[in-house]
Specification:
Elements lengths: L7 H16 L32 E4 L8 E7 L2 E9 L4 E5 L9 E7 L17 E9 L8 H14 L6 E8 L7 E3 L6 E8 L7 E7 H8 L8 E9 L6 E11 L1
Parallel strand pairs: 7-9
Antiparallel strand pairs: 1-4, 2-3, 3-12, 4-11, 5-10, 5-12, 6-7, 6-11, 8-9
Helix pairs in contact: 1-2
Length: 253
């Protein structure tokens, strides 16, 4: 995810906009409440595999080319297809109140190829074919002055508040599995490598994570709050390449 900005004020604005979208907030639209089509069954939240469903909201930054999200089918599995060509955006689903204290997140993804030369540990190379993003609520007064200033600026510019913290589950080409990396623009977003290397490309890969245990590992000495939203993100804006992927069967319980 590349930012081309100059001057201290411009840099702060750009960083703020990037943080907002990465964490699951839109500058131009509020993430909708859970819709009837994504209504939970018992203690489960399972938004449908169609980005045009009311459960999903597209989040983009105005000066970015958006990733294209559409309904697809791969190996008979209905899925949310993402296609990026020098692009950046994500789709986000608000979590219903009944699931805001859920613990377990599962999903599947299918990736034909990783993004060439991408490296989510290195600054300036952090494109990814797939990311699953979990946004948490929390007490902003516990954050340091710099993080609070970023959040306050974001609210002033957009009218929307940033989530307190976010996890991104990623498929990384180089870093080992379970590596935790910090977002270059804010320490409140952490990337967790759940798949590493090329093995498994072009096949459906299934994952189940204890998001609260992962939060505690990513944010030591903190307890996770309520889950605000789940997002899907495929991006190639940093290196300008092309990639595609399919996501399916997102389930929070």
């Amino acid at each position: 995810m590349k930012f081309l900005c100059s001057g201290s004020w411009s840099i702060r604005l750009c960083a703020c906009a990037l943080v907002m979208a990465l964490a699951g907030c839109s500058q131009v639209a509020r993430i909708p409440d859970a819709s009837p089509s994504s209504a939970p069954s018992g203690s489960i939240f399972a938004p449908v595999n169609d980005p045009k469903d009311a459960a999903w909201q597209l989040v983009n930054i105005r000066f970015k080319t958006p990733t294209v999200y559409s309904a697809g089918v791969v190996d008979t599995v209905p899925c949310i297809r993402a296609q990026a060509d020098g692009a950046w955006s994500l789709v986000v689903a608000a979590v219903p109140p009944a699931q805001k204290n859920a613990t377990e997140l599962s999903w599947r993804w299918n990736v034909p190829a990783l993004v060439k030369d991408a490296d989510n540990i290195a600054v300036g190379k952090d494109d990814a074919a797939v990311r699953v993003v979990v946004a948490f609520k929390g007490d902003r007064s516990t954050l340091d002055a710099a993080e609070r200033a970023t959040m306050n600026l974001a609210k002033m510019l957009s009218g929307a508040e940033l989530p307190f913290a976010a996890l991104q589950y990623i498929w990384e080409g180089k870093a080992p599995k379970e590596t935790i990396a910090v977002n270059a623009n804010t320490s409140r977003i952490k990337k967790i490598v759940v798949k590493s290397g090329p093995e498994g490309l072009n096949f459906w890969q299934s994952f189940t994570r204890d998001v609260r245990a992962d939060f505690r590992r990513a944010f030591p000495n903190e307890e996770p709050g309520e889950i605000e939203s789940i997002g899907l993100m495929t991006d190639t804006d940093t290196l300008g390449g092309k990639t595609e992927a399919c996501y399916a069967d997102i389930l929070l319980r």
